Amino acid sequence: MKQKLLVPVINENFSFEDASSIYDKSLPDQAYNMVSKSYYPYYLFQANYQVPILFLQKQLSVNCMIDALNGQAATTDGFQVFETEVTHEDVLANCINKKQAKKYGKRFIINHLGRSLKCIANFDVSMCFKNIVYKSFWVFEGDECSLVIDSVTGSCKAINISNSA
Amino acid sequence: MNTTVLIFLVLYYVVVLGIGYWALKRGGSENLEGYLLGGRRIGPATTALTLQTTSMSGFMFLGAGSLGYAQGYYALWFAFGDIGGGVLNFSVIGRRMRKISELFGALTAIEYLEKRYPSTILRIFSGSLTIFLLGFYVLAQFIAGGKGMALVTGMPYPYALAIAVSIIVLYTFMGGYLAVAYTDFFQSIIMLIGVLWIFFAILYELGGFTSANNMIANIDPSLLTVWGKDLGFQGQWGVIAGALMIFSIGYLGWPHVVTRHMAMKSPATAREAGAWATVWNLLFVPTPYLIGVFAILVIPGISDPEMAIFEVAGKLLPAAATGLVMAAIMAAIMSTADSLLLQTGTIAARDIYERFFNPDASEKQMVFVSRSLVLMIAVFGYFIALVEPPSVFSVVIFATSVLGSAFLPAYVCAVWWKKANTPGALASIFTGATVAFLWEYLSVVSYTTIAPMVAGVVSSTIAMIAVSLLTQARYPVSEEILDLIDEASKIRPIPENMLNKSSALTIESVELESHLRKKK
């Protein structure tokens, strides 16, 4: 029996119908054989920081998600999650730990603030861990190639998952 | 300068501050994130014009005008290169570099180079070389700021320079308030209006293009040719090629330009922003050179040709307009200078100090290192600009030549040539920088008629190809990097209309592909 996990998943904006419509538009001449879902892990932190405004400081915060496989960080809007039961093999395993994720996230935020605000300043960035969240991806497997579709943004990408590749 | 000019100059800054205040206060923190952390609500037009404001430095108002004044229509070679440069940069490395830097997780241009060509020496050498040459470029902005401030306020140059340098450094340390995209957007519009206003004013004064050209022909017909004063560059295609290359491909070596490719939102944004930038460039870039050419007639025998545009503005524009135009020029100088200082500080703190001296450096320590370096550059820059100020034009051309020669093949081959390896990159950077520097320093151009940039780029390209091929067996490019280059080059089979969306999934798709293969 397959091992089941209860994971927090980011609310999906693209249902199966929406995803299959994207598939039809992207690969109109190819039929798919199978559809599955994969769950991609991210560390979610709240980054608190101070922005210099003339001689004052303004305290702000932003959500920062760090890709749990390769440490890529990005800021994000707020979002809802729901808990769902998924099979273990549909979940991608973390490759970095929380401490590393915090370090990568902080580095990203400091760099991003400096570049965006065009100033060399101490932003007093502190990273507050919130959760590990998962994003689901629709996977449409075809004969020639497969298509992964982000269930939150609808972004898609053709991939080759045949063993002969 | 009269009081009206000063009043309008101050008024301009009040409006800019007002826009910054409005943008930051509007709508609370959610909007602030939009403005400060990614420009999610800012379209390609604003993005493009914001970038143009940063990249158009004091050179355009001092160096370009001076060149037109001294060499006539020959100056337009530089403008042609600059106009085409934006599109060339976006198309040659823009999209691929954005994808591959994302895959590498590189935050700075030097870190990107080290991840593509793994080598500690490369990072130290590239970081140090970049800091050194960016220092020169900052020096040019200091001189431009000092000269402009002296003219606007009527103060002696040493005091005006001290004020300009202090404002630039303070601006870099404080930032924030003026960094919102809308202030840059506003400034870019004022810069464009200002420069076009001066241009049309001078054309009106001279009775149009034909009349102006006839008058120049009476003074010195060689100024109307593309070969420079007294046909000094006739048939010197090596020099012409250098003039064309300097601001087209030369920019590819600049870390603050390359970082922009890494920070692009998506390839589609880049394409649209590139189109806007080109339109703005077409209107803006040739104009200061042409004003310089026609200034020969309006202010003949000027002692410092670098002040030609300022002087023309002061002579032909109403005092209020002169104040606005001067303010826009000062804004262009300051926005470029603070970007350069920021890049220099970041490279010193992140690529040198954190990487090699203190990997666990706190944010405060990093800020201290960055600010210390900026202060050192400011103090050195001030004294060099005071004691023996070189021309803005020669400093910018020197720094761009050496940086472009050093880094151009390394950046281009990083995404286009899989065999480009670490020894090849090291040899290329070292050779390009050395050849361009010596070519300039020893004035080799005077007897070879080949510009330093041409010699530097050719030699660094040869070094990259020869050394990479010779050392391929011993230092092959790793499979991991080859996979990432492959991934960065993929567009198909996603149809063109899906390109924008597909780009966002680059990183996850690599991991998902690997996971799904294992699952099978």
Please give a structural write-up.
The complex is a heterodimer of chains A (165) and B (520). Chain A is of the alpha+beta class. Chain A has one domain. In chain A, 19% of the residues lie in helices and 47% in strands. Chain A is built from two helices and eight strands, in the order βαββββαβββ. In chain A, strands 4-3-2-6-7-8 form a six-stranded antiparallel beta sheet. Chain A has a two-stranded antiparallel ribbon with strand order 1-5. In chain A, a hairpin with a 5-residue loop joins strand 7 (146-150) and strand 8. The radius of gyration of chain A is 19 Å and the shape is elongated. Chain B is mainly α. Chain B has a single domain (3-392), classed as Sodium/glucose cotransporter, CATH 1.20.1730.10. Helix content of chain B is 78%, strand content 0%. Chain B contains 24 helices and no strands. The longest helix of chain B is centred in the middle third of the chain and has 39 residues, at 319-357. Classes of the chains: A alpha+beta (165), B mainly alpha (520).
